[in-house]
Amino acid sequence: MNSENFLLSEKIVSPSYVRQGSQARRGHEQLIRQLLEQGKCPEEGWSESTVELFLNELAVMDSNNFLGNCGVGEREGRVASGLVARRHYRLIHGIGRSGDIAAIQPKAAGSSLLNKLTNSVVLDILKLSGVRSVASCFVVPMATGMSLALCFLTLRHRRPKARYIIWPRIDQKSCFKSMITAGFEPVVVENVLDGDELRTDLEAVERKVEELGAENILCVHSTTSCFAPRVPDSLEELAAMCAKHNIPHVVNNAYGVQSSKCMHLIQQGARVGRIDAFVQSLDKNFMVPVGGAIIAGFDAAFIEEISKMYPGRASASPSLDVLITLLTTGANGYKKYLSERKEIYSILAEELKRLASAHGERLLHTPHNPISLAMSLDGLQATSDKAVTQLGSMLFTRQVSGARVIPLGKEQTINGYTFRGFMSHSESYPCPYLNAASAIGITREDVALCIKRLDKSLKALKKEGKAARSPSPLASQNL
Amino acid sequence: MNSENFLLSEKIVSPSYVRQGSQARRGHEQLIRQLLEQGKCPEEGWSESTVELFLNELAVMDSNNFLGNCGVGEREGRVASGLVARRHYRLIHGIGRSGDIAAIQPKAAGSSLLNKLTNSVVLDILKLSGVRSVASCFVVPMATGMSLALCFLTLRHRRPKARYIIWPRIDQKSCFKSMITAGFEPVVVENVLDGDELRTDLEAVERKVEELGAENILCVHSTTSCFAPRVPDSLEELAAMCAKHNIPHVVNNAYGVQSSKCMHLIQQGARVGRIDAFVQSLDKNFMVPVGGAIIAGFDAAFIEEISKMYPGRASASPSLDVLITLLTTGANGYKKYLSERKEIYSILAEELKRLASAHGERLLHTPHNPISLAMSLDGLQATSDKAVTQLGSMLFTRQVSGARVIPLGKEQTINGYTFRGFMSHSESYPCPYLNAASAIGITREDVALCIKRLDKSLKALKKEGKAARSPSPLASQNL
Amino acid sequence: MNSENFLLSEKIVSPSYVRQGSQARRGHEQLIRQLLEQGKCPEEGWSESTVELFLNELAVMDSNNFLGNCGVGEREGRVASGLVARRHYRLIHGIGRSGDIAAIQPKAAGSSLLNKLTNSVVLDILKLSGVRSVASCFVVPMATGMSLALCFLTLRHRRPKARYIIWPRIDQKSCFKSMITAGFEPVVVENVLDGDELRTDLEAVERKVEELGAENILCVHSTTSCFAPRVPDSLEELAAMCAKHNIPHVVNNAYGVQSSKCMHLIQQGARVGRIDAFVQSLDKNFMVPVGGAIIAGFDAAFIEEISKMYPGRASASPSLDVLITLLTTGANGYKKYLSERKEIYSILAEELKRLASAHGERLLHTPHNPISLAMSLDGLQATSDKAVTQLGSMLFTRQVSGARVIPLGKEQTINGYTFRGFMSHSESYPCPYLNAASAIGITREDVALCIKRLDKSLKALKKEGKAARSPSPLASQNL
Amino acid sequence: MNSENFLLSEKIVSPSYVRQGSQARRGHEQLIRQLLEQGKCPEEGWSESTVELFLNELAVMDSNNFLGNCGVGEREGRVASGLVARRHYRLIHGIGRSGDIAAIQPKAAGSSLLNKLTNSVVLDILKLSGVRSVASCFVVPMATGMSLALCFLTLRHRRPKARYIIWPRIDQKSCFKSMITAGFEPVVVENVLDGDELRTDLEAVERKVEELGAENILCVHSTTSCFAPRVPDSLEELAAMCAKHNIPHVVNNAYGVQSSKCMHLIQQGARVGRIDAFVQSLDKNFMVPVGGAIIAGFDAAFIEEISKMYPGRASASPSLDVLITLLTTGANGYKKYLSERKEIYSILAEELKRLASAHGERLLHTPHNPISLAMSLDGLQATSDKAVTQLGSMLFTRQVSGARVIPLGKEQTINGYTFRGFMSHSESYPCPYLNAASAIGITREDVALCIKRLDKSLKALKKEGKAARSPSPLASQNL
């Protein structure tokens, strides 16, 4: 309420109580002021009531909520369903304009503010998480793959002749498809085996650059976060190589914001060489629903170019989710999530190690992968051909989600490209294995339950000798 | 509750009352059954409580809501904020998989069901709205422009040599940019003036096809819904031409679902010639928040190809919105919106005509545009150079949203292409004018208020002779 | 947001858009201002967003929502469940203080404002609905019966010697029990039959007064709204009699606010004689959940005395419900409900008349009852003893709720008092009958469905001759 | 969804995923089954989604949510405002029937179930909290005072001659008023000073019983939870005395459920003597909004008599709140709240002791009061007459809520009864003091902030010597 209404209230209930209420309101306003002034994630998280107050204030500024508005356009922010209006806090106009996803909408000052603030708060978090020199970023309501495609499409205008994208292999479909979708030819560079780890074959990359000619290469497309035993790409070296050859460099940092190691690699890459853009998932790093990504970079002009490449308005829903989340957790809350994740990574590693040795398997030694772990399944494989895939099936049934079982020698063709040893990032990884990851939001209970159920399943499979049930088609997929 | 729980309830409250409650529950279940069985929009809208019951049921089927789930993957549908979880009905996993936006997710049977049903219900509505022979469609969480770009990117794989897209001019940025984003060269075909109307220059299109060579043309990119005095493209003739030359044809049907004329054009085009895909906005046709589109077509295989071109999972938010909306309105409710829109179009036309003649202007004669109307501003222009832009500014201030003022001779360059007479779809339209549209959800009150405020503004401007206030930068833009 | 925050916002998005947003906010504030200033129900209903904005503003003023509050008392408005906090808009402190349900709470300026405003808005509605000279009222979170008891308990302090309450018979348990609960002896005055109508036996009342002695009588307890064929008590005459004998007069106006006739009776009674308090249900008159009532009267001091008789704080939930409802409907919306109800009363009467004659029954002639109607069941009774009760059972099963079937000669004992012909307000009403009412919120569809199902049921019963199924225990009760 | 709908879903998405979803649904059903079967508070709290699922299921069973219902009664559970419907989960019919607040409603099987289960769950919690032999209880939507009045009103019918209620003094208005409201004459028995503690004067009670005659005494009305330095009444002795003289005994256990000591006193009292009913607040013990109470006792028949004394239906809102809360916390969660409260009581005592000695005051020695503490203000009083009341004012302004400042010699008249030394439970307590309590839900931060602000305030007051600002009228009240 404004001061006039507070004054009127003093006539109805005692002035001293109203004044205290009015002062309390200023407490909330003060938090909003700091956000508007600094554009940073607040140190301490806001209460739900402050968050909702703020969102209601934003909504009131959008023309579809004007009490006296009359609309004779083709897009007026009308909403047929009250359920829908409410779940979006009556913020209906989305973000951006036809020319630019980061543009301000005349009809929707509140939604525009939401968009600007979200990008600003997210930028702050990227800095806090380790990429201190990031210059600009924006949230886009597309998942990582499509966002990578948008980066490639933007680069096309800078490098009209280029046809190839150099891509150190990582067996995840959407990042591969992002290149296909954008209309480029992926040049797959196989990884090298170093102990248990699969790491970037830098010499092969260099060879490819020379073979194809730098001017024909749109960019190098590298990856940080990935499933063990693959480890993050050698970003420093790749970035330096890109700088040397004047080739753009786009990093798929899908769920890397949650790991200080991944973020450090990007920061270092940008320092010593060239990184044009790095893309990260909203859901995987910020515990929001699937469907958004952050496109970030060290040159604000290039990032703006990408944002202008998105034709038309876009859904504000992912922006709203991440803003609510970060205002609620605050910077401190988010950091706490990160440190807990790290801690549980160690616990998970230890527990898997113990379990592995109890079952005659071993935890693969992949110290450079800060999130994902892999446990060999050699022994299980020995008991029966089907045992490995059966394990996957059993874990699915027992509600262990996210554990992946990787059998040997799977072959898969995607858009005409054939990958031998698919899912293992390698044509011939020495052993079948099981993956488990410590991702943001994981709890000690998740680990305990997973280990318990995994132990039971392994025991059951061994007891059977040859497992009775037929393998499920799910078994070898990432569930 | 299941039957066991109903039985237990009978011991607590009277069996006959519980039985009636249980029977009432079956009423809701029955509605859900019909939806699952037929995959169609229900005739009569559901109550909010049935809708929420259904969404809760879906959510319960997703692994992030399993009571005994333990997650050790990198994407577990965790949500940090309760506000966020609730506003998505705890449906967190989005839609699609890395390979295909229409694919089923093992971790999320509920979200997968949501996705399939939404596409099915939306297909039903497209049929009901006039495109009876549509074969397949899917909702994509991107606005129209980006969705058009996705169609073009898909076509690239079918026509690797093609570089051009033939595009009868329509002055709307995002559809122009969709071609740029996808990496193609737009070939702009100017419209011809026919009375007051601007319509497709079919001969010029034909000439361009011959000039460039069919194999070098990715597709013809035509438009239905548009601002008067432009009218929908001559889809039948274009479709026939495309069939003849074996050129794909993509139709931008942005807000055309709400008009039986636009839908009829598409249906006829597909019947007599070739339409590969037609794309429509969710927000503009279904009164949901900005950010989604429907990609539809007559060949299910091609539509599937597009859906597979989207790399990675995607936000379920637009799908959820449109599903809630259509279940709530029902087919009958939606049809009622359509007929009301049509009725108010006539009222708006009549009122504008009356107003125009009172001010010495005239309603442009554009009978082929079923949604948008234009009123000349010659007289206003005569009073002062700035008067036309000032009118725009005044309407903005008076909360008339969506009315656009189009001055003469504006020039604008977009991605290196210069458009003379920008916003008027023509290099030299004979007069300045004002647009107003009767779009879905418009009310009689909108029309009355708009006419009243427009009348006042025009009077004020004329009284001034020369308007006192300085023109606002907003004046000539689409607010 | 306050002006400082709007200024900051202008740096982030365009000043002119922010200014329009800020102006739009003033639109909401203006509505709130009028409410605070006038304390009246707004003419036009508020939008949901204004209502929620207002409630959030109130909540912010309560100490449990102060960001810097620390609590070391025994009642701090803490809430363990987020679901609970949200459903009460974080207004936790209830209304009133230990001394007085209308008192202001130092800890809760917002809740106090809510309480004061609700009472004020409700008073306005009572005036609008016909009791123009009502002086004061308050909402109490107890249903009508308990609220009547509170009135009687208050009167006890004024009339310590009085033991009797004179009560023209109405067969509804809770108003009878209200006298028992308060510790008084009800003196039941049977009604007189006048045509089909049962009306107040004024002479019998007068006789009782003289017989018992005015000083021994706590009050006369009369009733307006009731089931036909009983009609509202003769309030004018009773009020005059009370004035003459100096006996307090409490009116049970349970669902009478919705009827201009009932309200007129009260207004007239107070004008010509004495009415100390009249009590009405919230749920039955304002379409809110069960559980609240309004205690109103013409002497503010006496009403305050009652409010001070409620020991302790009380739930704000009924106040919140009725305030939300009236702000949402506005005075005009509420009046529209009233006129629709009246209109549907005529339809229901006509339809029942038609149906009755088709089945050889008749609509009882009860023109003085403005809400409830009764249709004879003589013919049905003739077919079988059980047929009348079976009809009740059938209607229950067919989801006709609220229709009551009244067989002949039911006897019931309540708290030691035996009522012959219970449910019919008379020891020996001439015929069995069925009740149906046109109450606020009823729709034409309710009437149509009810008539259809009633017709079917009557036909079925007659076909059977003797009905096959056994009578349900529900049959003769008010469902 | 029922099994038929799950089967249909299997045709749309993969059967194995749907089956897992269906199995997950059974997880929720299982929790509901246990609740229905055992009627106990679940050990572990339910997730929000299970709670909402359950409430939605209940709502579906109420006739106002029947899809095919038609209503022609005067109370049909219609709701005019969607906001209101939603906040009550569409449970509109309240609880109870006209005859009995615990009765089952034919129109509302779901609400009836809610009512029964709430009473059952609450009974379980009373047992867990220490009153193991409690036989029956019910939730009533009235605060403690009005609930006590209802008990007294019920007893009147058992003891028609009785006029007096014997009441060991406790200076809290609503419990005093409850006797006045019910129409009885409170017989105030002053407490005795024992060290710093004020405790029951058992001999005086005995004397009063003999003086007035047992048959003229309605009951003894004792108290457990209270502000220090008063301590809980000597329940065992009072109960024994009541048994001996055959006098009913009603215990005001306002916020005593949270204290094992208070609950133990009741359990012991009932074991060795007579306790007819004990009444506790919902908000103060269960962290729900103000407005409900639990009436409990050891003789189910008497408790039922009270429930039948409530005339008419009642609000379900307090029942809903406490049920949601207890399902969410679970028994373990509730017990954890209790143990934390106890722990923080020790911390608060220690901190106050330290602070007191630093300021030349002392913590009063009141070991028998398990919740409230008192710190002397002798020194402060010495500096200035007004200093004590000013302290109250300062704490209010500094957002320390719930701390009460008790000056010497306040006199207050309530309903004609004059209390000397009001607020101190004694006509002449030796010193002024300040109260602070460790009530359920208190946090360590509350204590830290309170101590800090109290310290600052005391320092400021002493610095002033004579405080500058004028005393606020709030100062001596319980804020």
From TrEMBL, chains A, B, C, D:
Q: Which GO terms describe its cellular component?
A: cytoplasm
**Localization annotation:** Cytoplasm
Q: Which UniProt keywords apply?
A: Cytoplasm, Protein biosynthesis, Pyridoxal phosphate, RNA-binding, Selenium, Transferase, tRNA-binding
Q: What is its main location?
A: cytoplasm
This enzyme catalyses: O-phospho-L-seryl-tRNA(Sec) + selenophosphate + H2O = L-selenocysteinyl-tRNA(Sec) + 2 phosphate
Protein's pathway: Aminoacyl-tRNA biosynthesis; selenocysteinyl-tRNA(Sec) biosynthesis; selenocysteinyl-tRNA(Sec) from L-seryl-tRNA(Sec) (archaeal/eukaryal route): step 2/2
Which terms does the UniProt entry file under GO BP? conversion of seryl-tRNAsec to selenocys-tRNAsec; selenocysteine incorporation
> Looking at the keywords, is Repeat present?
no
| Pfam families, A to Z | SepSecS
Cofactors that this protein relies on? pyridoxal 5'-phosphate
Which enzyme class? Answer: transferase
Q: Does the keyword Protein biosynthesis apply?
A: yes
Outline what the protein does: Converts O-phosphoseryl-tRNA(Sec) to selenocysteinyl-tRNA(Sec) required for selenoprotein biosynthesis.
What the record says about family reads: Belongs to the SepSecS family.
Name of this protein:
O-phosphoseryl-tRNA(Sec) selenium transferase
Gene name of this polypeptide? SEPSECS
